[in-house]
Amino acid sequence: MASFFDEIARNNLKSLLLLLVFSIFFAAIMFLFVLVLGGGLLAFFFGGLVIVGYAAFTYFYGDKLVLKMSGAKEADPKQYDVLCSTVEGLALANQIPMPKVYVINDPNPNAFATGKNRKSASVAVTSGLLSMMDKRELQGVLAHEMSHVLDNDILFMMIAIIYAGAIGLFAAFIRNAFFFGGLGGNSRNSEGFLLIIGLILGILAPIFALLIRLAISRRREYMADANGARIIRNPGALADALKKIQAYSAAPNAKPVKNANEMTASMYFSNPFSAKSFMNFLSTHPPIQDRISKLEHMY
């Protein structure tokens, strides 16, 4: 048995350590990028500009783009009174501005939160989730999503995604430097060694970055489960919601979220793709049975 606070602290520490490892790895890749290319500082500067531009665009416009891509429509408070009043109650209880509420016309039971910060947050739920959950279970799912807002997980995961994208970009530069000749001022004696290092990094660095990003995402999901259960003081409600989603995913006619993609998958309450199409260690979410088990043993 573990308390809400034990689970929150444990997963927060693990995710912060993973982000620290990611930061060190990112710095090492940048250093080796300059070392391998020698005089290729112009390419380094250009790559840096691309990353900064991507980060700025994601920060200022990413939430709007995600909502548009997902087909989310702002919820009518009269038509979706239970949904909107539940979000409002959770916001008041946590002393944050009420997020904008959206509904996605999709049979897959799912939800996500997005936004730059607490003042500009949005919560979106699918029509499948609304039709499947009772009020208690819906509150559990929404508390999970609100905890992502409270813990700044949206910004947290944005940093991880940018790191992974930047590492992939630098790794591609390093690979191309060897395939097309770009060792700059490196001597012939070091060329063979750098060739081996560059090829290894060019191939393995993006894979390692992906695995770290996925591990961070899974830790933040465990943390949001624990924090969501703490908010409503009812881990059973969240566990029951996950059981219904598990049953839906196991059904032969289960469909993935229509507009989800690899970049937005980590935002969802549960894996938006087919559970059978991804191995657990390559999923943005922990195994759903593990999440249920943790919640059932939480107090």
Cα-based radius of gyration, to the nearest Å: 21 Å
Number of E-state strands: 4
The fraction of residues in strands falls at: 5-15%
What order do the SSEs take from the amino end to the carboxyl end, as H and E? HHEHEEEHHHHHH
Largest sheet: 4 strands, mixed
Helix percentage: 55-70%
Distance between termini?
7 Å
Low-confidence stretches: none
How confident overall, as mean pLDDT?
A: 85
Count of discrete alpha- or pi-helical segments spanning 4 or more residues: 9
Query: Pairing-aware structural class of the strands and helices?
Result: mainly alpha
What is the general shape? elongated
Strand order in the largest sheet: 1-2-4-3
Structure description:
66% of the residues lie in helices and 6% in strands. The protein has 299 residues and is mainly alpha-helical. The chain contains nine helices and four strands, in the order ααβαβββαααααα. A four-stranded mixed sheet has the order 1-2-4-3, sandwiched between helices. The protein has a domain at 4-67 and 153-296. The model has no long low-confidence stretch (mean pLDDT 85). The chain has helices spanning 4-37, 41-70, 81-93, 127-132, 135-150, 153-179, 188-232, 235-250, 288-296, and strands at 72-74, 100-104, 111-114, 122-126.
